[in-house]
Amino acid sequence: MMAWVDRMPMAAVRTVGVLEVLGAIGLVLPPLTGVAPWLAMAAAIGFALLQVGATVVHLTGGDRLIALNLALLLAAAVAAGAATTWL
After folding, report:
1. Alpha carbon distance 59, 7 (integer Å)
2. What pLDDT digit, counting tens, does each position of 44-85 carry?
3. Per-residue b/e over 9-43, b at no fewer than 16 CB within 10 Å?
4. Buried-most residue among 43, 45, 51, 63 (CB within 10 A)?
5. CA–CA distance, 59 with 28 (Å, rounded to integer)
6. Are 54 and 68 in contact, with CB atoms under 8 Å apart?
7. DSSP line for the chain
């Protein structure tokens, strides 16, 4: 269903998956536990960078459907802003 997966090496696809899971953990656990709250900011910035890269991959592959990537980039920016209040 995702055309970019066919153009990328499987190791890159798996790496993106691992980064997304670790980023989600980094967004949720620090605010809940109060341990290393700077990780939430790092995870949000990482997600924003991931979405910038995803947008580039979609555009260079001829896929012009980047609305979801832009929405996720906005969500990551909001999460980064919210993380500053947790620090």
Report:
1. 13
2. 999 999 999 999 998 998 888 899 999 999 999 998 888 777
3. eeeeeeebeeeeeebeebbebbbeeeeebebbbbb
4. 43
5. 30
6. no
7. --HHHHHS-HHHHHHHHHHHHHHHHHHHHHHHH-SSTHHHHHHHHHHHHHHHHHHHHHHHTT----HHHHHHHHHHHHHHHHHHHH-
pLDDT in tens, 1-50: 678 888 899 999 999 999 999 999 998 898 889 888 889 899 999 999 99
Which pTM does this prediction carry?
Answer: 0.83
Helix 10-33 to helix 38-60 angle (10° resolution) is: 150
Length of the chain in residues, anyone? 87
Domain ranges of the chain: 10-86
